[in-house]
Design a protein that fits this description.
This protein has about 190 residues and is mostly helical. The protein has helices at about 5-10, 15-25, 30-45, 45-60, 60-75, 75-90, 90-110, 115-125, 135-140, 165-170, 175-190, and strands at about 140-145, 160-165.
Length: about 190
């Protein structure tokens, strides 16, 4: 409500007139719809101001917000848990990437992969293991750090690749180039 409207309502008898007008408009659906449209236009036009106002209110009433959220959770616990489970199942790869990033950040003290980086790596590597050229779609894959985090490598896009589970487990926290030499030597002996 604007300042001049507040001043208007302070005049004797005006607040009752305002309440009567509101009660009358509530009985007319077209008036309610017009009011709703005006509110939407206002909120779009003043989005930053409205967001700041809402944020200030949440900060000033944080205990109320916490209590409300907790009560809502307890009332709808089964539905909220089911929705979260369904979302995790539908976005399984995003959750795996989040878990990897979290663990790597915890170990290395920072770093983050780009959103969708694993899918991009899969395409860049043509679905093949970076070490043995095995088909990752059939074998499965692990996200590998070329320079291991335990040896100071960053958890970043440029330091990651996809390996099949066997190669990643065999490489462990060793250097990737040394692991490739070992694979070449084994292939030379077997051939």
């Amino acid at each position: 409500m604007r300042a001049y409207q507040k001043e208007y309502l302070k005049r004797p008898g005006k607040i009752e007139k305002q309440r009567a007008a509101v009660a009358k408009s509530r009985k007319r659906p077209e008036a309610m719809e017009a009011h709703r449209k005006r509110q939407l236009i206002y909120s779009k036009k003043h989005r930053a101001r409205e967001n700041a106002r809402a944020l200030k209110w949440r900060r000033d009433n944080c205990e109320y917000v916490k209590a409300f959220a907790r009560a809502r959770y307890l009332k709808n616990k089964a539905e909220i848990i089911a929705a979260a489970r369904e979302h995790r199942h539908a976005n399984r790869e995003a959750y795996r990437q989040y878990q990897r990033s979290y663990k790597a950040r915890k170990r290395a003290g920072g770093g983050r992969l780009s959103r969708g980086w694993i899918a991009t790596l899969f395409v860049k590597q043509d679905g093949l293991c970076a070490a043995c050229d095995g088909r990752l779609a059939a074998l499965g894959y692990h996200l590998d750090h070329i320079t291991p985090i335990s040896k100071g490598g960053p958890h970043s896009d440029v330091n990651t690749q996809l390996l099949c589970p066997t190669c990643n487990i065999r490489k462990s926290d060793g250097d990737f180039e040394a692991f490739l030499e070992l694979l070449r030597a084994e292939n030379a002996v077997n051939n």
